[in-house]
Amino acid sequence: MSRTQIRANQLITTFGPGAMVDLPDKSVIIGGLDSWIFEPGRHGIVQEPRLAAKVAHALRRQNQEFRGLSIDLRQPPPASERFYQKGSLTPGVTGFEFPHWFIVQQVEQTPQKYRRRRLVFRDALTKGRFHEGDEKRSVVPVRFVRACQRGHVGDIPWRQFVHHNASSCQQDIWIEERGTTGDLGEVWIVCDCGSSRSVSDAASSGALGQCNGSRPWLDDSESGCRETNRLLVRTASNAFFPQTLPVISIPDSLKAVEAAVLECWDGCLNEVQAIEDLGIALKFNGTVRDRLAGFSPEVIMEQIHRIRGGTNPEGLAKPVKQVEFEAFAQALPDHRTDQPDRDFFVRELEHSLWSSPLMSGIERVVQVHRLREVVALLGFTRFEPGTPDVTGELDLNVQRAPLANRPSWVPVSENRGEGVFLQFKAEAVEAWAASPAVVDRSAELRASLERWQAAHPLTQVDFPGISYIMLHSLSHLLISALSLECGYPISSVRERIYAPKETGEMAGCYGLLLYTASAGAEGTLGGLVHAARDIRRHLLRAAQMGTLCSNDPVCASGVAGTASVNRISGCACHGCLYIPETSCERFNQFLDRSLVIPTLERRDCAFLSL
After folding, report:
1. 3-state secondary structure at position 401
2. Could you tell me which of 259, 266, 313, 325 has the C-alpha nearest to residue 505?
3. DSSP 79-120
4. Which of 77, 278, 507, 513: CA 20 to 30 A from 100?
5. What is the signed CA dihedral for 453, 457, 462, 463, rounded to 10 degrees?
């Protein structure tokens, strides 16, 4: 079996379980966690109690069968340099061959001058090649598969498709290219019996029938799926959206006993009323007994009473981003800072070093000398991404595909880096958001989103609030300005936006963190930390960059008038606000530079003014 190396971080973001990957000699779908093989004694456990508690809570909300399971955080199995005998299990990640239909790489020409190639099932192959007489033809996987909204994926039954669900004919079938653009309308499936059908028909609703729950990454099928199959190009960007939960490690945000009790809460501790009940639980539930080993019954009961009384541990009761925001907002100046922690070290920059009229709405600038980001993969979706909400919490209504049948752990990546944090004055942001011009603009953006939702009825996207959109747009402008001097390209600088939810969560928390982090790095270049000392000049450059776009006046018109239903942003395009999607926490959605700086179209709703 051939082996190919993939970076560990890619298994969390791009090539996780359920992702379809083209290898040099075949196409595979990355196997579920049950098929990931670790070296004995090397399970790569990562300690991050706050994230572990959040992950366990999310998984148990999705599936009640996960109750009682303790959830570990593990790094993907590293490539092993040891020699393993033939037949033994070699550490690594398993990939299952998928899809099972192939195109023979022998081009024929029809009388109409169309290019066509034979379409064959894998049973017709011998050692990965199609034998035609004495010749061995190479093959490539077909690029079209079927999938449903719940993440299930499978082969398109091409014989049934070309014969309009009648599959008795066993003559050869071909894939014809009747044009040069690659458009689905120019790609046809043709049978030697005379039947033919355009692949574009497969994109119409119901053409591929009802999903059968196929989950090739788990090597099984899930019964009871009632979704309609949809055409999916397996190499398209919407074929795999990982649902990740990132947190910035905050020291002592969740004590060990709190994390242990929360992990076992849905298992049986939610039924414990007295210390005698706890004794029974510890006696008969091995998972709970192992997880709570080392804590006295009295300490465990104290935590149980806190949870039941509504005083949940802060690490779980508070949103992910609120814990982070409070840690950054409590940063002290240089001369009052304690010894630096290996994973988290921040310093507040003296006000005199950055104060200017342009920054009157900013309350604090913090140099983030060291930070540790841990990103957990919980599942994935297809067609539509499922991202955390504005508070950093997972949307529990998103129906993600599982990574394993009964996961006891989830894969994580551990990254270290640096950054700069800006805290905004709550009164300044709230006064700006309450102005009539901004209220009107918020209504326009919300109406545009509603039109987009009507055109995409399966979407889970909600309006994040006008303050979030303003901070998000400013973040993109500032990333573009910083990247010119900080030593990092735009694609290496990422953002974390802190803004209240419309329901009131995180009230008064307004800020943005621009940071860079990479796996295995104990230190960084220091470019972002140093840039904080010159933040007013960088902010001025960002504001100047936002006043005019190369696509103005088209870009500046934004959602004015009858906006396109394909927009969920205002004044934003590749000429001004769009940055690499690896840097953006919202896939370049919910942006509007007219909320940050006056533009050609709108000059009355900007937060900054030159």
Report:
1. strand
2. 325
3. PP-S---TTSPPSEE-EEE---EEEES--EE-TT--EEEEEE
4. 77
5. 10
- Report the alpha-carbon distance of residue 217 to residue 60 in Å, rounded: 21
Q: Give the DSSP H or E segment for 173.
A: strand 173-177
The three-state secondary structure class of 8 is coil
With contact defined as beta carbons under 8 Å apart, do 400 and 62 qualify?
A: yes
* Whole-angstrom distance, CA of residue 364 vs CA of residue 350: 9
The alpha carbons of the chain give a radius of gyration, in whole angstroms, of 27
Q: What angle do CA 254, 257, 262 make, to 5 degrees?
A: 75
| Closest to 500 in 3D by CA, of 389, 388, 422 | 389
Give the C-alpha separation, 135 to 128, whole Å: 13
* 476 φ/ψ angles, rounded to the nearest 5 degrees: -65, -40
Strand partners, 245: 376
Among the residues of 548-594, which ranges form H helices?
Answer: 554-557
The predicted pLDDT at position 339 comes to: 55
Handedness of CA 151, 157, 161, 166 (dihedral sign): negative
Cα torsion angle, 319, 320, 324, 325, sign = negative
pLDDT mean for each 10 residues of the chain (610 residues) = 70 88 85 85 77 79 54 80 56 86 86 86 85 84 90 90 80 85 84 87 83 89 84 88 87 66 70 82 81 80 67 60 87 62 82 89 91 89 80 71 84 90 94 94 89 76 90 95 88 91 83 85 73 91 91 79 58 90 86 91 87
Give 549's Cβ-side CA count (13 Å radius). Answer: 26
Indicate the domain borders of the chain: 101-233, 245-316, 317-401+412-595
> Which residues are CB-neighbours of 588 under 8 A, at least 6 positions away?
569, 572, 577, 578, 579, 581
Q: Supply the pLDDT for residue 397.
A: 60
Peptide bond into 553 cis (omega under 30): yes
How high is the pLDDT of residue 182?
75
How many Cβ atoms from other residues are within 10 Å of residue 249's Cβ?
23
49 near 254, Cβ under 8 Å? yes
Query: Parallel, antiparallel, or unpaired for β 115-121 and 173-177?
Result: antiparallel
Q: Which residue has the tokens 């990957």?
A: 21
In a 3-state reduction of DSSP, which class is residue 258? helix
Tokens matching residue 79:
């490539």
Q: First-to-last CA distance in the chain? A: 62
Q: Which residue has the tokens 């603009």?
A: 441
DSSP code per residue over 414-443: EEEEEEEEEEEPHHHHHHHHTSHHHHHHHH
Instruction: Give the per-residue pLDDT at 563.
Output: 44
The pLDDT assigned to 305 comes to: 73
